[in-house]
Design goal:
Blueprint: E1 3-7, H1 9-18, H2 25-34, E2 39-42, H3 53-62, E3 66-71, H4 84-91, E4 95-98, H5 114-130, E5 134-139, H6 146-151, E6 156-160, H7 162-167, H8 173-189, E7 193-197, H9 205-208, E8 214-219, H10 221-230, H11 232-244
Parallel strand pairs: 1-2, 1-8, 2-3, 3-4, 4-5, 5-6, 6-7, 7-8
């Protein structure tokens, strides 16, 4: 069955907007765990717009499920931000997801162009694996570089699913789903496991999971938005129900 990892970034956004410690990221993570998630995801950025370094360490101390830390491996120290790879070295999470984002992006909006980054990524992937971390690369649903991802040492890719989410409910929905189905098959054929994430929600998740062999979905914004209606525990249960039905 596909694993569900909940991204708790937006809990930190709300906390940071007011200052102080509420809502508490660790408490939110524990609520998700109590509701049956398989993992917790965070994306610590240098601008610390949501998850802060102390959150990364606090979660590492308490998590009893898989820990996925995503971000740009090139992000170095900046003020109170110690650098992405420093966080990884300190915490050794279950999974590291490399994302080619920059501080001026509102959110992650594209996958890696691997050919241009292969030389720089290869030793970083090797270092993460030496730490015992599984490595996933955030990729567009275009198979041309999947063999290179595997050759660089990645264990998985995470399919960037915004295009699928945007096509949901439109005449292009079926074509988009098939596009992702073929991408997943190509990645698996290259020896990679497949994760997925970005704008997946209660409405579109079930259809997406008709794609065979999706190892994990990472969902954050939609979970927190739904939690405003249903509560966080109930929301996670609803996502688990959708996933168990596929």
């Amino acid at each position: 069955m596909t694993a569900l990892s909940v991204n708790v970034n937006k809990v930190a956004v709300l906390r940071n907007s007011r200052g102080g410690s509420q809502p508490d990221v660790v408490t939110a993570a524990q609520t998700c765990i109590d509701a049956g998630v398989d993992g917790i995801t965070v994306h610590p950025r240098p601008d610390m717009r949501h998850i802060k370094p102390h959150d990364v360490y606090a979660l590492a101390e308490m998590l009893t499920v898989e820990y996925n830390i995503e971000g740009n491996p090139y992000a170095g120290p900046d003020g109170d931000y110690p650098g992405f790879m420093t966080l990884i070295r300190d915490v050794s999470p279950t999974q590291v997801t490399f994302v080619p984002d920059t501080d001026d992006q509102l959110t992650s909006d594209h996958g890696w162009a691997l050919a241009a980054h292969a030389g720089r990524l290869r030793p970083l992937i090797a270092e993460c694996k030496a730490l015992g971390c599984r490595v996933s690369l955030f990729m567009n649903p275009e198979p041309a570089e999947y063999a290179l991802a595997r050759e660089l040492g990645a264990d998985r890719i995470e399919l960037y699913t915004e295009a699928y989410a945007r096509a949901w409910g439109s005449p292009d929905q079926g074509e988009s789903l098939q596009h992702y189905r073929l991408a997943a098959k190509a990645a698996q054929g290259a020896g990679l496991e497949v994760n997925a994430g970005h704008d997946l929600n209660l409405d579109n998740l079930g259809a997406f999971l008709t794609i065979e062999g999706i190892s994990e979905v990472s969902i954050g914004h939609a979970v927190i938005a739904d939690a405003l209606r249903f509560g966080l525990h109930e929301t996670v249960c609803r996502y688990r129900t959708v996933m168990s039905a596929t």
